[in-house]
Structure formats: structure tokens, C-alpha cells
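Researcher: I'm comparing several assemblies side by side, and this is the next one on my list. It has 210 residues spread over two chains. Same procedure as the others: predict the full complex and return the structure.
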Amino acid sequence: MSQTFTFPYHFFLGTDLQTKKLVDIYRPAVPVVIAYGSSRTLPFYAHVDSGADESLFPASLAFEIGIDLKKGKKGKSVGIGKIEIPCYTHKVTLYFYKFDFQVEIDFAENHQIALLGRKGFFDLFKRVSFHEKKKHIEFKI
Amino acid sequence: MYNNFMAKLKSEFLIPYENKWVALTPDNKKVIASAKDVGVLSKKLKNLKIKHGQAIMMYVSPFDANLVL
């Protein structure tokens, strides 16, 4: 049986490009926890990023749960500036809402923002909908 | 995306923490601890004996740039 649930966009601080004043910015970021063996992180906000092929997290989160980073499958991620980031893929448990999933996540050093991408996150759901006016994100599983 | 109509910014308390990881109280209103790196922040929270459900961590992205992820 399918289930639908929503999360409000989370607030961040940014600059209004016209007025140059600081403003609240709302982005689709959701609280998650990752675990490896019996070790797990504290909850943290991760951006739900439909433009990301895979999920990419800071390596510090991997170290935190006892992952030997460079034992993972080596790869690279490329952002919009065509800057290549070396990353290592590891299988972890992702806790999100009431669910836990076994997923592969890329971890990269010198990378700060936790991104939930299409493979290993979006593909867990029947539908992921962004509601910009209402500032919430809806998941159907 | 922007909300220009708030007299007081909801995120104003994040001003000192640009480019840092912070741990927020569960109501998202106060910062418990901060660090340049999420691993260092986690260690700080362990030392403070903060448990699951008592904090949520977030990265405070640069204020002067749009995120293009």
C-alpha cells in the first residue's frame, strides 16, 4: 500500500541579489541519519537534489561512522563548474522519516553539502514532488 | 524562493556561522554547537553528551551565492 508524506522546505540564510539584504531562503532539505554497522550519525539536513545522479555526502560523515573511506569504489563527481571531485562509494543504511534503506552513497573530502540524488534516494519512491509555492516536498512510497 | 516579507529573519541567528556546520535544537531555533567540519561538530556534541533527538546538524552555506546543485 502506498503512503504519502511531506516535509517543509528548511530555512537557510542568503542574499537577495537585488537588494543585497540578507533574507530567508527555503530549500528542499530533509533530516536523515546514516549508519554503518552499529554506528550511526546524529540527524542532519540533506538537500534533495533532482539534478544529482547519485547521493554525495561529506567524507567526515563516513569517518564518523567508522567507514574506511578509500576502501570504497573510487569515482568522481562533476558539478556545474566542471570541477571534478574524487569520491568513494559505500553501502550504508539511510534512515529517513519512518523508513530505513540500504543505499550506496558517494563520500568526498573537501565537500560540505549533503546531497540526496536520484540513484539511491529518488528511486526509492514512486514520486517526489517539489511544491515551490507551499515550500514543501512530497514523497510517495 | 525568497521571503522578503518577514520583519525578522527566521534564519538570523545563523549569521555568525557562515560556511560552518551547526547543531540546532530540535525546534530549529538555537545553535548548540558549531564547527568547520561535520566530524568535528559530531565530536563536540558527543563531548556535550548530546543524544539522538536532542540536535540536528546542518551546513550553513555561503550567504552571497545561490546554490546550484
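Model: For your comparison table: Chain B has a mean pLDDT of 88.
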